[in-house]
Amino acid sequence: MSITRELQPLGQLLINRGILESAQLNRALDEQRQTNHQKLLGEILVERNLCSDQQVAESLAQAHGIPFVRVTPKLADPRAVAKLPFEFLRRNCVLPMFCVEGMLTVALPEPENLFLVEEIERRSGLRVQIVAATSRDILATLEAYLPADCAFVVDDALADLQPHALRLTEAAGAKPARLPEVDPPVIKLTDYCIYTAIRQRAAEIHIEPGDTDLRIRFRIDGRLVHRLRPPRRMHAPLAARLKALAGMNSTSDRSQMDGQMRAIVEGHSYSLFLSSIESRAGEKLVVRIVEEDRAPLKLEKLGFSYDMLKQWRKLLTCSAGLIIVCGPAGSGKRAVLYSSLMERNTEDANLCTVEDRLDQALVGINQFPIDPAAAMDFAATLRAVMRQEPDLLMLSDLGDLETARLATQAALSGKLVIAAMHAADPVSAISRLMHLGLEPHLLGSTIQGVLSRRLVRRLCPNCKAAYEPTSAQKRQLDLRGVGLTTLYRARGCERCHNLGFAGQIGIHELLIPDDTIRERISAGATLPDLRTAAQQRGYKSLRADGLEKAHAGTTTPEEVFRVTI
What we know:
Blueprint: H1 10-16, H2 22-34, H3 41-47, H4 53-64, H5 78-81, H6 86-92, E1 95-100, E2 103-108, H7 114-124, E3 127-132, H8 135-145, H9 151-157, E4 166-170, H10 184-199, E5 202-209, E6 214-220, E7 223-228, H11 235-245, E8 256-265, E9 268-279, E10 282-291, H12 306-316, E11 321-326, H13 333-343, E12 351-355, E13 366-369, H14 378-386, E14 392-395, H15 401-412, E15 416-421, H16 426-436, H17 440-446, E16 447-459, E17 465-467, H18 471-479, E18 487-489, E19 501-511, H19 515-522, H20 527-536, H21 542-551, H22 557-564
Parallel strand pairs: 2-3, 11-15, 11-16, 12-13, 12-14, 14-15
Antiparallel strand pairs: 1-2, 4-8, 5-6, 5-10, 6-7, 8-9, 9-10, 16-19, 17-18
Helix pairs in contact: 9-10, 10-11, 14-15, 15-17, 16-20, 17-19, 19-20, 21-22
């Protein structure tokens, strides 16, 4: 936000309005100089009873060409107040009033403080317009809202919640939970967090205690977004209620615990996986949300380009060999594995999985979770599943030598194995397997293809805006070998909860080894040698695939650079 009009000094405005005399202003300015400008002129004038704080605020509003507002609790939208941390609002005397179409209206006693306005925009992720108000009215309104047991958020948020729209239960097969007696605001806060997170497509809820308050954030489209900051005293009863629902022993002195519960929201069932661990400030909780009845997406919905999808589907028709999907945690590897399995799911096929956790039930697929407590790790479970004579085998992690060796042996024996692993790109995945100790000749003879994947946020189609890159942006794109003339940016609207993004989409690079690359793998080639050989064959990089999507208006260049640098 910028103010370009020429501003009159506050003292002159008050003189012009007949509120102040020149001699009074000069004495006030002398006092300000003597205190080394530790106080604002308006504060000194109010302390000397030369004018009221409302007259100061009205004059500042006139100078900046903005409205003056007598703020009260009835004028401020609780959901707007909750967009910024309580301590920040109180420390800077800031009152968010309401948010309309991605524009947050904020009341300030010092509208000339542009650095504060920029900080509000950065913290909220929204565009900001300001109105003037007295600091006394702002602080009184904040006190009316924020110290209460978060009822200002929960009551309003659940006002439109129909009966039975949200129901929390124990996980399937678990004993009925004995819920602790807690105050109604805690029950409302629990319901609000889970209901709102599900409605906003959040994958996780993070409940983080601080020294003086409690921070609640949602992970939406891969990014943590601040949602609530209730009083610190709500942490213990909130944690106790969640742990009881998840079947966890709230009296245990263990520093780390896990549990599970279910939520039914508007007829849809969700598994909620709760993890708790002690931090310096108290118990941090994370709730991971998985929709139970959601079918895997079709491969066409995962972000593959037309040519790459044809190549990937051709790989899936192989009768034997090893196919790897790599990327960091949270890059959607399992989504590709599940969608690929469903592509091969026919009545005459025995499809089996070995997974570290079962997030989703796949119809027609035999899914086997590992159980380290019963000495059934990946390798042991894989051995047992191999005796079931699978036609296609999926592994959720190819992270140790024994599992990698068993997978390649299965591929040599005529099975198609699709496995995920943590690696930056296809060449790094191959190199990592060799560094684990896997014999190069085994890898070279079984590897069919390696897919690398990242997730970028998808621009909200309702509010995205096209723009011409600035000269600086064009130079930056030119340095990366990209010549885009039209780009798109996020704006924010009610449909995307003012984030500017709605969902995620994959960007990919696919390496299908030819005879030359296979020979180099079998010979134990180094990572630089393999990378050079792959680049000579001109396969499309992650960044190139991502920038094609930026050019099409699906995402932004910043999102692509964020995950590919």
